[in-house]
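Can't paste images in this forum, so I'm doing it all in text. The chain is below; anyone willing to post the predicted structure tokens underneath?
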Amino acid sequence: MKDLILLVEDDIIFGETVKDYFESNRLYVIWAKNGTEAVQLFKDEHPELVMLDVVLPDKDGFQVAAEIMKINSIIPFIFMTGTAISDNDFSNAYQSLHAKNYLEKPIKLSAALAQVKSLLYPSGVKIFNINNLHIKINNQQLTINEQNFQLREKDIQILSFLLEKKNQTVDRQDILLKVWNSDGFHLENTLDSCISRLKKILKNIPDIKLKTIYGRGYLLSILQ
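Text version of the structure:
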């Protein structure tokens, strides 16, 4: 699944600025310019997070959030406002509308990006953006662009290590020590089985090649 953000903002210049900045940082953004459009886009596209202006031309952001929550009751929101939100208003939004934070305009884009990434990629999630590939590892779930794969725990650990060492030959002993804290002979067949499963999965991704370097180890190469 894409890490898709719904931006709801009626200011054209600001909306374009946010969208361009986020997309330059390898995020996907759909943009609604009013509340009615926002609800329809949410139904159609199923984003994972909503950045929502409080003041909109047809209805306020809190009303829009309430409508969206009828579709997805756990979607996180970051509210944006040109004026400070009272502690009471934000407390109500936090409790009833899954508000994770609010940003007071003028917004510092780097701070907004940091907040969005902290919600999309919680602790323990690994992200690799390599050339045209967006790779996300969350527990035993692997997502490459829009393809999802369920892997075994050790397979995920090996793949993560190989991604960190991409385009380098990695010795078998280094993998065994990293994943099993041992390079004992009894683990050799287990490692072979893990690599075989990874190769089978990665056949679906033409830009990634996992090669056996005989006498040494493995090379995970990312094609340009």
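The first strand starts at residue 4 and ends at 8. The domain at 4-120 is CATH 3.40.50.2300 (Rossmann fold).
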